[in-house]
Design brief:
The protein is mainly alpha-helical. Helices cover about 90% and strands about 0% of the residues. It has 2 helices and no strands. The protein is rod-shaped. The termini are far apart.
């Protein structure tokens, strides 16, 4: 193997677990964020349904 490539790989490979961990945390954070947004949207839709029913009863 080329000595330059050997030096590059020896620098990069020890950091691989940290990079993988960082991507996993970012993915988990995005998943939690999307879950919170979806749950909030469902709650808002339920509130809108209740308001529509009240308006229909009023008219």
């Amino acid at each position: 193997m080329n000595s330059v490539l050997e030096e590059i790989y020896s620098t990069i490979l020890p950091a691989a677990p940290y990079v993988i961990g960082a991507y996993a945390l970012i993915f988990l954070g995005l998943f939690v964020y999307v879950l919170i947004v979806v749950l909030g949207l469902k709650k808002t839709e339920k509130q809108m349904d209740v308001l529509e029913e009240l308006l229909a009863e009023k008219n």
